Amino acid sequence: MPIRQRTNLRTKSVARRPAARSSLRVGNIALAGVFAGAALLGACDMSVGQSTSSLVTVTAVPNPPLDPRCGLDAVIVLDASSSVRNYNNPPDANGAVDLIAGAGNAFLGAFADTNSRVAVVSYNADPRLQLDLTAVTTDSLAAGGAHGIAMGDPGGPQGPMSPTTGYSEHARNGSGTNWEAGLVYAQNVLENNGRADVPKLVIHVTDGRPTRHLTPDGTVTDEGGMAVHVAEAAEVADQLKASGVHIFAVGVGRAPQFSEELQATSGPDVFDQTQPGDAFDVVNDDVILAADFDQLEELLRGVADQICGASLTITKLSSTPEAPNSFAPAEGWAFSASVDAAAGGYNWTLPDAAPATEKTAISDAEGNADFQWQIFDDAAWGAGTVTVTESQQSGYAMQNRALCVRTRAGAVDFFFVNVSLPAGSFDVELQAGDDVNCVVRNRADPNATVPADIEVVKTASTNLLPEEGGDVTFTFTVTESTGNGSVELHTLTDSIYGDLNGQGDCSVPQTLAPSGSYTCSFTTTLTGFNAGFTETNVVTAEGTDENGVEVSDTDDETVVIGDNPPDMHMCKVINPEEAPASGGYIELLVYIFNDSTWSDRITIQSVTDERFGDLLDPANPLVADGYCTAGLDPGGSYMCAYTVFFAGGTPGDVYYDTATVVATDDEGNYVSSSYETELRVVAD
């Protein structure tokens, strides 16, 4: 998979770092006080002066709460930089690789046979797709299985990867830490192969700050420094989060030293494994700090247990009238489940969290119907007997036994349950933390027919708009999904935009041939919303099959308004440029320019000087007089003027002095700019 070239949609960037300017835009500077500010501004062109800016932003897009249920699509992104390979506890050829593999397998084990799919990506300076989204099964986790190989199973048919180094699959030669590249690969995987309407998760495991990022053409660079590397990774993370993906940024070892950088790619809520009183919240936590690689396995197993607690997956297989003895996953079968356990000791999480004594789940395209519980009290849960009943369909005969596989604390066992007929029900016992998958078969009557049905898919041209808004094109595709008959599509409506007939190129009614599709789209403009605004709308397609039976389907899409970062630069003038050796008062003029391209007013938080200290502090003994405005509109400029005391020096000495201005925009994003000037000491 080639590294995807970066798009022009920029929601987070590092403020430009200009070299010494030959000219500076003044705008409407408010001149006040006793200094001839406008006349002195030209001194900012002096060759020794140089303005630099940097940006530290609050995460522009919130990390969406994680839906804590099985059946998710997840990507594990693994740092494979040299520091991981050289980790010397234990001091073996693989460094921390085997520890990471063990932790990854512990995480994956909780999702075996639960209709969950997990991909594995690794990176150093460059990324690698170890494994695309693949169903996590007992077989895939076994030695030689797809996930076993991807996580670095040395016994697998593809590993170890390098016979010269002995490194396992994801620990390969190369150095550098490119967070952005790993996240871009994760984004590609989920965009290209992710399923609609299932939770999506990225787990990024790293032991250090990024040292690389991608240029707009997709090549790798180490230029720009850490702030740029982090900002570029955060931009990709924002796009992932805007599309509904929850990101766990997992820092290992020295992680507390770069917690802020991890937060920039995830969110502000931090769980620290080293803090005894810290409780992990799988729904809302963003950053996870692991004590060391040795503790990573315990940590990730705990994460997985909270996501996928006691769960039961029914895999429905059925045959067709044409091939009654050939079974395949069957979609659209209803199963109800009830729990024989004391109330108050558990909550339902799948198929939904609403209180109920019985719930119904419908098998998906893979034939899976999922049930899951969050258990608070093991004693109240007890044996946890779950009674499952199939809603049988005419033309099919349910088989009298179901084959089940249970995963409990990493151990796997197989067993049969008897199906009570004609009721179509059976019992399964689950303990807290158990994951059970039962395969149920129905044989088709050779004379039966399957009715037609439809599926609608809604997509947006972008899930993330800049703060000023913009155009979004919504596309709708309705497909006859069974191939067994035609459907007359008579209604296409949107929860926000109403009847779509006549909007864009959408037109109904439409006739869908068996397995045929109809696609239309329309474009709308989203403006006037604050950063962080989220619009989620649902399309509903309705039709009638050849027998007059009503069929329908829904799909949703979300668009988020991002946060444009602020931009500013400054200039400083010392008047006079020469100070007497005996000392005395001099003037500092600080010019501030709001270069933000959007309607972000910036508020000045601090003006500091490395020689004269905090210029806004009224108790500063070196500042005799001064003033500075509190806020500045986009495109505006302002001059802050100060009288400061210079203690004196040796004639001929030259002092290089840097002032720094820090400001925030209306979303709380910080931007700073610095400017260096020189002060020459002359004889009195």
TrEMBL record:
<dbReference type="InterPro" id="IPR002035">
    <property type="entry name" value="VWF_A"/>
</dbReference>
<dbReference type="Pfam" id="PF13519">
    <property type="entry name" value="VWA_2"/>
</dbReference>
<dbReference type="Pfam" id="PF24346">
    <property type="entry name" value="DUF7507"/>
</dbReference>
<dbReference type="InterPro" id="IPR036465">
    <property type="entry name" value="vWFA_dom_sf"/>
</dbReference>
<feature type="domain" description="VWFA">
    <location>
        <begin position="73"/>
        <end position="303"/>
    </location>
</feature>
<dbReference type="InterPro" id="IPR052229">
    <property type="entry name" value="Collagen-VI/PIF"/>
</dbReference>
<protein>
    <submittedName>
        <fullName>von Willebrand factor type A</fullName>
    </submittedName>
</protein>
<dbReference type="InterPro" id="IPR055354">
    <property type="entry name" value="DUF7507"/>
</dbReference>
